[in-house]
Design brief:
Radius of gyration of chain A: 27 Å
Oligomer: homotetramer
Strand content of chain A: 15-25%
Distance between the termini of chain A: 61 Å
Shape of chain A: flat
Chain lengths: 471, 471, 471, 471
C-alpha cells in the first residue's frame, strides 16, 4: 500500500468548496475539482495513474475538521426524526462478536429512541444511501458521478466504542472510506489470489484464518481517508475509547470490460449471423459423437477441427462487434442509476426551474419567458442526457427527472424526431460551449426553436443570460 | 439445382427395409441405411458433400409405390377416427386463393366428417407431427435422428385437385418432400439474397412479385422426392386432375454454428473473467465521452484504442471457450427433442421390456432375470443417453422415456454418483460393442452390478443374450 | 354399519352386463342398471334411502368371480408394459410399517421390472385413475357418472401379503371398495366427531390411539364390496397368506350444498346490490368503534342493531339467489370433470363416428350421409351437454371431446346462436325421445338442419336409423 | 336538494381552527369539530340525519375567505416547483369541449412552465391526492378520517375561465366540493334510476341527452360548499369571467353493507360448514336434471324443494356470520388506507418523537426517558391501531408508520403475545382516558412495562406528562 502522512494538512471547508464549484460551468471540471479536494494532497492524475484499481492508499491529515459538513451523527439523528427511515430498507443494525456476524433489524420504521438503544447496546448502524435523506451527500455524489462515468453511491457507518460491526470481507466496488467523527482501527489485506483481484462480486464473510496478514494497518481519525480497490479484504473496529462515524463513497460496480462485453457479444453474434454465412452453416452431422464433456479426452482430429472452427468464428466476431451500440446500453443503465443534479441558484434562474411563470387570480402572467433564435443555450451537465438508437427510433435518455431514491422510477427518455437528431447531437458535442439556438442544424428556424424548447422544458438546458421576464 | 431422373428406379418396400434394419445392431448404421433408401439412387456421402445445405435436389423414380407403407390417406382417415386430433393443435385447414392465404380451423376435435367436408370444399389439410399418431412415421424419424444429431420432424399435407394450400415462403429447416399419393406441381426459387441463405428463421408469406423466377419447376409424382435447404423459397399446387399427399421430413432447425455460439459465448466470458484480469479491469473513466452512437463519427485516437481493446478481448475469448460444455447444452436440448426409440422384437426381449417378471396370484414369479458380472451389455442406441456435468454433479440425460408428443414431458435425467461416472462413460465409448459387466471400471464388483442395473432398469441397455428366465 | 351376507350370491359376468347395457337407450337407466349389479343384492333405491351418506355397508357374496373382468393384476402388468406410466403421477409406491407411512416413488417411468421389485419387497402399489389406461374401467365409470351427477373416479390398490400400505385416515369422497383378487382385512371407524361427518376435505394420517374402536371389521374377499361415506376412518391390511387387489370407485367430492352455496352467494350478493338499495347504503359512521373482535364483549345496543341488520340482509339475500345460474357453474365443472362416453358399436354407426365418409384416390366419396328434416335424432347421453348463459352469450358445454386423462384439456364448449337456443333446449328436454329434425323449434327449415348438423358433427347426437351410405 | 344561503356567514380562519383542535385530546371530538367548521352553519348531526347519502346540499356563505389556508394556486405552483409531480400519476391535464372529453398528459415530470402553458391554452388541471404534497390538506384529511371511519381522500381542480374540464358523470364517493378561488357554475342531476342511487362504481362519461334536467344549478364562489352523494350526476364549468380552484374531499368509497357482506359471506359459509351438517350433505343425485338455466321454466316440485332448501340454508347462514371478524377485515383495510397522523407540538413532546435521546461525541446521552409504572399513557388517536385475530395469532394493525403516499407501503402490524392481548385491549377501550401503566391487566409488572414500551416505541402512545429528561 501507499502511505501519505506527516504534518497537518488543511484545506477549505466543504461548504466553501461547493460554493466555489458552483462558479465552474463545466460539470466535468467541477467533478475533478471536488475529487481533488477529497483526496488532497494526492493529485487526481497521480491517483488514477498509480493507485486506482491497483492498491490501497491512506491519507492521514491530522486535521479532524477536514470533512466537516459532509455528514455527522447530528445529521443522522435528524434523519431518523424527520424521515421515514425503515429498518432493513434504509438502515441495518449489525454486530460482529467473537467471529459471529448478526443482523438485528426489527420490522417497520426506525425511530430514534429504538435506534439509539441498539447503539447503546453495542450495535453498529449502517445507513444505506444517505443521499436520499441528506442534501450535501446528494450534492457531492451527483457531482462526482460526472468524473467516474459510473454510479457513485454511499453508505454511512456508526460504530460504538470497543465494537466491530462487520466481518472481514471484500466488496465489488472501489471504496473511499472517509472518517467523519471519532476513530477506527482498520486492517486491509491483499486479495487471496489472482482471480479475486478486481472481482465482479462481493465476498462472503471471512474468518480470520482465511485471510493472512494485513498489508496495511492504521487508526483512521476524523479527516483521514482510506482507499482500496475491489477485492481487497478489510475490517474495521472501534478502539475502546472512541466511537466512529465514517462514510464510504463507492463507484465502479459492474463497470469492467467484461460488463461491456456482456452487451457486446450477443449483439456481435446477431450482426455476424446476418452478414456472414459461415455462422449460419449447420454443425457437422456427427459432432455429438466426438464433442462434449464425455468425449473431452478423445484424440480425434475432428475435435481439433471443430474447436478451431469455433475459435476462428469467435475471432471473426470481433469484426462485427457493434461497440458503440453496446456502450449505449451501458450509458442508458448509467443514466438510470444517476442521481438527479443539484442545481445552484444561478442554474435555477437560468433554466426551466427559474422560468418566472406564475398564476395571478387564475390567470397565467403574460411575461412567460421565451426561447428565441439568439438565446445562447448549453446542456445543464455534460452527462445529463444521451442519444441512443433503438430499432428505428432515436431516443434521448436523461437523468434530470430521476429520483434521489435509487431506481424508484423507470428510466426517463423521450423520442427525438429524425429531423431533430442532428440538432440534439450538435448540442451534446458543443458542451460546455453556449451556442445560439440559431446555430442548431435544422432546416427551418421554427424547428430550431422547437428542439430548444423541448429540451429546455425537460430541464436539460441552461441559458447564458437569464431569460428576462421584463423584456 | 441438381436433377436425377430417367428410367424407373425400384427398391425394397419400406416394410422390408425396416425389417432389415432391425438386424443391424449399430443405430448409426441403421440410420444411414434408412437414409440411403430414402434418397436412393443418390448416395448419402455424395448428397452430404454436394447438395446438403447447398442446393435443391430432385429425385424422380417413375415408381409410384416406392414409398408405400410410410403414410397414406387411409392412415390419415384412421387417425381422425381413432385419435383425439384437435384443430389448430394437430391439424390445420388452410387455403391459398388469389394470393390470399387463410386458415379455417374451427375449435375442438377434428372428426372425419367435418375434415373431409373442408377437403371437399377445396381446403388443404396439414397434419402436424404425424409421428404422434402413426407408428411407422415414428419409427422412421426416430431412426433418422441418429444420423442427423438434430431433431427430425415431419408434417403431412393433403391437397385437393386444382388447389394450393400455402403461399410461397421459405422455412428454417432442411426439407425432404416425399410424394406419397397423387402429384403436385412444385416451384423452387433461390434465396432472395445472401443473408437469406441458410436463415435462422422462416419467412413471411411472399407475393409472386417478390420472388423472381423459379430455378426448379417440376411435377412431383408418388415415389418422387424433392430436397431443398432452408432459405429456398417454394410453392406447390395441385394440377386439376389429381390430389396430392406428401410428407415433409425436416431437420437442422436452429442447429448452426451460431446456435452453438449462443451457448459458447456467455460461458467463455465467464471463464475469461475468472482467469484473466484484463477482462475484470474497469472501463476508462471517460469512455462515455467518446464512445456510443452519438460519438460514432468522432475522430479520436481514444476511440481506436477502445475498439482495439474490445476486439483483442473478443479474440482472447476464443482461448477460454468451454466448447465441450456448450456442446453438452445443445446435446441436452437434442435429447429433450428426441423421439423415444421404437424397439424391435429382439430389442424388447433383450432389454428391461422383455424382463419376464409377472405376478401370479399376487406373487411375483421368482424367475426374475438377473444382471450378472458376465452379462454382456450395450447401450440400446448410440445417442440414447449423454453424460453432462452441471455444477458439481454429473447428470445422465436420456431419451428412452420421452413421449411421442413433442416436449410433453420435462427432460429426463438421473444423477450419476461420482464413483459410477467412469463406468457410464466406458459404456458410452464402447458403443456399439457389447462388454461384460465385469469390465466396467468400478472399484468393486457390486458397484459394477449397480451401474448396469440402474441403466438396464431405465431401458438404456440391451444384453447380448436373452436373460434366461429358466436358469 | 349394515351387514349383508349369507349364502353365495351370483350374477351375470361384467361383460354380459355391459353388453346388455348397450341395448338400453337411456343413459340414466343404463347407469342405474349397472349400479344395481354393482351393489346387488342391495337395491339402489334402498341403498340411497338408508345407507348413502349415512353409514358403511358390507356386501359379502362368497363368489370370488363376481367382479371378474373389471380389473386384474394381469391388466396392471399389461398397463405397465404398454403405457407410459410415471411414478408419482400415475403410480404411487407406499408402505405403512410400525405406524410410519412412507412413499417410495423414484423419478421417471414405472417399468414392470422395477415396480414388481418394490412389490416383492413389501410395498403397496396405488395406480391412480386406471380409467386412463383400462377401457373397461373407463366404460364403467363413464356409465356411472350419469347416475351420480358428479365425477366418478377410481384408484386401484395392490398390496403384498402380510403388509399394509396406508395409515388410517378418512377421505372426502363416497367410497365403494371392490375386492378383485385375494383378500384384505378392513376396519372402519366412526367419524371422530360431528364436524368430521361428511367432511369437505380428507384427513391427515391418524395413529391408532386417535381413532377408537372399529364399528366394522371384516375380511373382504374377491367378489365382495365395502361402502363407507366420507368421514368414516378406515384401514386395510393384508393377511399373511394372501395378497390383495381392489379398486375403489368414488364420487361426490366437493358436491355438497355448501359447494353450491360457494357459487350462489357471490352471485346473490351481486344481484342484491343491483336491486336493493339497502345493500348499497353506507355503514354507520362509527361502526368501527363498537364492532370487531376487540369489541366482541361490549354490551352496546348499537352492536345488536348492527348484527341484526347484517342478519336481515343475509336473509333477504335468499330472495336474490340466482340458483339456476349457480347450478350451471357446478354443471360446467362437472362436464369438465366427466369422462368421455364409451360408444357401443350401434352408437358408432348411428353417430358422426359412423359417418361413412372416406377418401378414395384423393376424392371424398360422394355418399356422405345427410341429416334431413325427417331424420330422427336424440342426444347421445342424457348428460352429455348443457346450455349455460354467460353474459349475453349462450354456451353449450359438452363432454364428448374430453380426454380420458383428467383435465388434460380445457372445458369444451360452443356458442349457440340466439335463434338456435330453443332448438337445443328442445333436444335436451326431449331426451331420451328421438325427435325428427323437422320438429325443432326454429323459424326456418334450414336453421333446423343447421342446428342438427352442428350437434351431430360434434358427436352429440345419435340418429334412430343408420344414415344410409347407399342412398 | 337543500339550500342554505342568505347573508354573509363567517367563522374562524382554518389556521385558528387547527390550532384550537390541537387542544382537544380526543381525536374523534377533533374530527367532529373540524367537520362542523367545514359545513357550518349546518350542524353535523342534522347533516348526517337529513342529507348524507340522501340528497345534495349547498352552502353559500358570501365569504370568499372562509376556506383560506386550505389550498391555493400559489400552493399549487409551489408544489410543481418543489416536488417531483408526474403527469398521469399526480397530475392530469384534461379538457371537455363540444362534448368531447380528452386527456393531454405528456410523459415525465410536470414542470411549472409546461403545466401553466397547458392552462393558458384552456386545459383543466387535476392534482391528485394533494395531501401527499400539502401539509395542511394532509392534516385536515387525517383528522376527518377519524369521523368517517373510512378513507378520506381529495383532489384539487384548477379550471381556466370559460372552459370545462370534465364530462357529466357520477362518482362512487360522497363528495364535498369546496370552492377555494374564483367561481364555478355547477349542475347536479338526480341518479338516472333506483339502481344508480348510491352505486358501488363510478359512471362512464355521459352526454347531455342522457341525464335530464338538473335538480340543482348554482354558481359556487370561493367560501362556498357543495355536497352530493355518490350516484348524483354533476358537471361544473367556468364562467367567461373567472377561473376556478376547488378541492373535492371524498369518503365512503366501497364502504357499504354489501362491501362488508363480501367479507362476511365466505366466512359465514365456512363456519356453517364446520358446525352444521346440513351444509355438508350431498346435493340430490338428480339435481342437474331439473335445475339450471335450461330447466328454469320447468314445473317440477323438485325445483321448488331444491330452491327452498338453498334459501333456508342462506337464512341459517345468518346465524353463523362471524360479523366481528369480517369487520376486522374492513378495519385492516381502512388502517392501510389511512393517512399517518399529523402530530401537534405537544404530541411530539409527549410521545416517542419527543424522546430526548441524542448522541454526543458518539455516546448516547444517558438521560433517556423511561416509561415507569406510574406513567399515564393513552393511545395517540382513537383509531390509530386495531387488534385483529388471524388464525391463532393476535395482530395489532396500526397507521402511525403509514406513508402520505397512498398504499406506498404494505400494511403495518405487529404480533401481540398472548399474555399482552388484554393489556392492549384495555388501552384501546380506555381511550381517550389516560391510564397508569400499573393498571394494565398483565400478570407481572415487567410485562406491563414491556407492553407500554412496545407501543410507545412504535409511536402509538402519548404520555400525560412530558417524560422529563432532567429527573
Amino acid at each position: 500500500g501507499m502511505w501519505i502522512s506527516g504534518k497537518q494538512h488543511t484545506g477549505p471547508p466543504l461548504m466553501t468548496v461547493l460554493q466555489d464549484l458552483s462558479k465552474i460551468h463545466n460539470s466535468k471540471t467541477r467533478a475533478t475539482s471536488l475529487f481533488e479536494w477529497l483526496i488532497s494532497p494526492l493529485a487526481p492524475a497521480d491517483f488514477f495513474r498509480n493507485i486506482w484499481e491497483q492498491k490501497p492508499a491512506l491519507i492521514k491529515r491530522d486535521n479532524h475538521r477536514y470533512y466537516d459538513g459532509l455528514f455527522s451523527t447530528t445529521e443522522f439523528d435528524r434523519i431518523l426524526r424527520e424521515d421515514n427511515v425503515k429498518f432493513g430498507v434504509n438502515l441495518d443494525v449489525t454486530s460482529y462478536t467473537d467471529g459471529t456476524r448478526e443482523t438485528h433489524n426489527p420490522p417497520g420504521r426506525a425511530l430514534p429512541l429504538v435506534v439509539w438503544d441498539y447503539f447503546k447496546n453495542g450495535c453498529s448502524l449502517r445507513l444505506l444511501n444517505p443521499q436520499s435523506f441528506c442534501r450535501t451527500v446528494w450534492n457531492v455524489l451527483s457531482v462526482l458521478q460526472e468524473l467516474f462515468g459510473s454510479m457513485v453511491g454511499a453508505n454511512t457507518y456508526l460504530t460504538p466504542a470497543g465494537t466491530q460491526g462487520f466481518a472481514p470481507h471484500y466488496d465489488d466496488i472501489e471504496a473511499f472510506v472517509i472518517q467523519l467523527e471519532g476513530k477506527k482501527h482498520w486492517r486491509v489485506y491483499n486479495p487471496r489470489n489472482n482471480s479475486e483481484f478486481l472481482p465482479q462480486f462481493s465476498s462472503v464473510n471471512f474468518r480470520d484464518r482465511d485471510i493472512g496478514e494485513p498489508i496495511l494497518e492504521t487508526v483512521l481519525e476524523a479527516g483521514d481517508l482510506l482507499y482500496f480497490p475491489r477485492g481487497f479484504i478489510h475490517q474495521g473496529d472501534c478502539l475502546p475509547d472512541a466511537h466512529s462515524l465514517h462514510i464510504t463513497i463507492s463507484s465502479y460496480q459492474r463497470n469492467s470490460w467484461a460488463d461491456l462485453l456482456e452487451k457486446v457479444l450477443p449483439a456481435a453474434l446477431q450482426v455476424a449471423v446476418e452478414e456472414d454465412v459461415e455462422f449460419r452453416k449447420g454443425l457437422p452431422l456427427d459432432y455429438l459423437e466426438y464433442m462434449g464433456v464425455q468425449h473431452a479426452d478423445l484424440k480425434d482430429p475432428r475435435r481439433d477441427a471443430f474447436i478451431q472452427n469455433i475459435q476462428s468464428l469467435i475471432k471473426k466476431l470481433s469484426d462485427y462487434a457493434p461497440v458503440d451500440a453496446a456502450v449505449d446500453q451501458k450509458a442508458k443503465n448509467f443514466l438510470h442509476d444517476c442521481l438527479p443534479p443539484v442545481l445552484t441558484p444561478a442554474e435555477k434562474t437560468h433554466s426551466v426551474h427559474g422560468a418566472p411563470v406564475t398564476l395571478d387570480s387564475g390567470k397565467v402572467k403574460d411575461d412567460t419567458l421565451q426561447i428565441e433564435l439568439e438565446t445562447k443555450i448549453c446542456l445543464l451537465r455534460g452527462g445529463i442526457a444521451r442519444l441512443c438508437s433503438e430499432g428505428d427510433a432515436c431516443l434521448l435518455y436523461y437523468s434530470s427527472e430521476n429520483s434521489r431514491i435509487y431506481h424508484r422510477d423507470e428510466p426517463n427518455y423521450m423520442e427525438i424526431a429524425a429531423e431533430h437528431v442532428y440538432a440534439v447531437e450538435y448540442l451534446i458535442h458543443a458542451y460546455p460551449r453556449y451556442v445560439p439556438v440559431r446555430s442548431l442544424p435544422c432546416s427551418h428556424e421554427d424547428e430550431k426553436l422547437t428542439v430548444a424548447t423541448i429540451l429546455f422544458e425537460k430541464g436539460l438546458l441552461t441559458t447564458r443570460e437569464q431569460l428576462n421576464p421584463l423584456r
